[in-house]
Amino acid sequence: HVQLVESGGGSVQTGGSLRLSCAASEAAWNTNCIGWFRQAPGKEREAVAADCRRLEITYYADSVKGRFTISQDNAKRTVWLQMNSLKPEDTAMYYCAAKGFSGPWNERGNYNYWGQGTQVTVS
């Protein structure tokens, strides 16, 4: 059973920090990449970052480079997204998702499995 569960969202002021967690089932963890996407009201879902464990590569969208850090703990089957220097434009529902080896990390269609999301609000 493939399952991804996000947590850690909340409301913060501009410049604040949050750490999101994505807990993965064993089946989800056995994929190649776990990525974070976000979707603001009225906007398309966009890629934020990804950790591709099998290839030992991490990726970031330009909009979050230098502010967000993705990391993982294999023993806990968890991926974190540390978000610093948050801006109002970071406000969105954040989703984690899992994919195999096919396709670019930042295209949502390449991800087979999705969590339910956690809301981040920056004011």
Would you mind describing this structure in some detail?
The protein is mainly beta and 123 residues long. Helices cover 3% and strands 50% of the residues. The chain has 1 helix and 11 strands. The chain has one helix at 26-29; strands at residues 4-7, 10-12, 18-24, 33-39, 46-52, 57-60, 68-73, 78-83, 92-99, 111-114, 118-122. The strands form 2 sheets. Strands 2, 4, 5, 6, 9, 10 and 11 form a 7-stranded mixed β-sheet that branches. β5 (46-52) and β6 form a beta hairpin. The protein is globular. The relative contact order is 0.32.
Q: What structural class results from the helix and strand content? A: mainly beta
Quantity of strands, as a count: 11
Shape: globular
The termini sit apart by 37 Å
User: Number of helical runs?
Assistant: 1
Helix content class: under 10%
Describe the main β-sheet briefly.
Answer: 7 strands, mixed
Uncertain regions spanning at least 5 consecutive residues: none
Give helix and strand order, one letter per element, not per position: EEEHEEEEEEEE
- What's the rounded overall pLDDT mean? 96
Strand content: over 45%
Gyration radius from CA atoms, angstroms: 13 Å
Helix and strand topology:
Elements: E1 4-7, E2 10-12, E3 18-24, H1 26-29, E4 33-39, E5 46-52, E6 57-60, E7 68-73, E8 78-83, E9 92-99, E10 111-114, E11 118-122
Parallel strand pairs: 2-11
Antiparallel strand pairs: 1-3, 3-8, 4-5, 4-9, 5-6, 7-8, 9-10, 9-11
